Amino acid sequence: MDDYMLLNLVIFDHYRFSHKLLFLIGTCKATAKFRVLQQQAYGFLHNDPQPGAAIFVAQCLYVLPIFESHCEGFSHLIISALRHFLKVGNGMNGLSKAKILAAKLFLAIVDGTLHHEERVLVKILEVFDVSLSNIQKAMHDTDEKDQTCQMAKVLVEQYISRLVESQSYMTAVSLLEHFSIRESGESFLLKMLDSKEYRAAEKWATFMGKPILCTLVREYVDRKLQKHAFDVIRQNNLRDEFPEIYHQYKERQVYLAMEAGYMEKVEELCERYSLEGFINVKELEESIPKHRYLQLDELSIKEVVWVDEANGLLDATRHIEECKVVGIDCEWKPNYEKGSSPNKVSIMQIASDNKVYILDLIKLYEDASDVLDDCLTHILHSPRVLKLGYNFQCDVKQLAQSYGQLQCFNHYDMLLDIQNVFKEPRGGLSGLAKKILGTGLNKTRRNSNWEQRPLTQLQLEYAALDAAVLIHIFRHVRGYTESAGDQDKRSKIEWKSHIVSHIDNSKMSKKEAKRGKAKTDKVPQSVEIKELTEQT
């Protein structure tokens, strides 16, 4: 071990202690902790450690296996820091030597003299951009150039064969792609499919090109994996090669929506895919057997009011401020694109005993943002109105992201999340309604397009029910009893302790924002709460 490696060992012993301490005492999630450490590592590389950042990282990767259980975490940490460092145009000093060191590291891992996880191995090859010529040079430790790199290629192929035998298909595919080795045939594809390694199969087929992609689609169809086949066709622009399969999958989506009774989705899909030949949607809806779901009139709701202008919002606010308890819910258009940001919250439903207001947040924000901010501040910040929600933290987060410039969503007063009272493992709000009220909610319209205007009557009813049912569940909570095991004793559900008097969702505290946590205060069991709940 040379002096530089010894120095690296000392440095990473310090990092190991910092890493362990941060993970033990930190209050934020592991991902946030990792990013903090990554920034520290990046800062260290920016200080130009000798004999160069890339060489320093390569040498660190030699000594990290000493740390055993911390090895993989530290390896990902410094590799990701180096990736970012090189991406911004730094670290060119000594990069050629670092490539050879990384190639030697690869050889040591392959022959078993050094242990690193397969994912780390792939990252080493990618970040240092190790080529077959680098491996050839590392094998002979000479500057002689072998244009064919035959020995290096044979060694890599032998290692890939070992990976395939052990069914490490994703690693094998990553190496084939990295070294541009295209000699594997369809039998390799079939092995991955037989092992249900679909991601690896798709990655390899994409690398190999259209002929293998077409083979993959046909195999998916033969194996009745239509969704996978459709995704490959769509992502690789193979619609002309498989027009019937592409069309059949679109029709299948419509039939699934029909079977679920999701009529708005049927209309949406037919329009989106330009599908014809389906029977009239209204006739279809009438032909489907009806399930028993909770209806608005059963909850004594006399009126559902659509609010999309300032005067209507002011009227709604006056009514809501006179209530002791309201139910609140939100809806937004689902986003099915992986990695993309969620859509804006489209509507907010606020229910009283006999009326539900549905606020068009998008239009109100565009036309009367000041009035919207003022009215919702009066409602959400009021300590005199108990706000009921279900999984309300999710709505809080979405509202803050959608309308961050409004002060009304910075904090909330007097909240009771019904989900926290019951902690039902399955069924959501519909399951809870069925348990408490005897009838569930129709959730088939949950993922509809909430940004379309006007909303359908069925969408309005769905939205209103989600807010109104909270009040009726709350009424039953106070007198609701449940069996205590096999005994005859019955115990009331504790709910008052779940009332939160204040949630601070503002960006005023950078420390809290970094932690990703809202500050919450439990409400004291005061006379005010007793009076508030007894009047509902």
From TrEMBL:
GO cellular component: cytoplasm; cytoplasmic stress granule; nucleus
GO BP terms in the entry: miRNA catabolic process; siRNA processing
Domain of life: Eukaryota
InterPro entries: 3'-5'_exonuclease_dom, Exonuclease_MUT-7-like, RNaseH-like_sf, RNaseH_sf
Region feature Disordered, mapped onto this chain: 505-536
Residue ranges of domain 3'-5' exonuclease in the record: 304-482
Biased composition (Basic and acidic residues): 518-536
Protein name: 3'-5' exonuclease domain-containing protein
GO molecular function terms noted in the UniProt entry: 3'-5' exonuclease activity; nucleic acid binding
Pfam families named in the record: DNA_pol_A_exo1
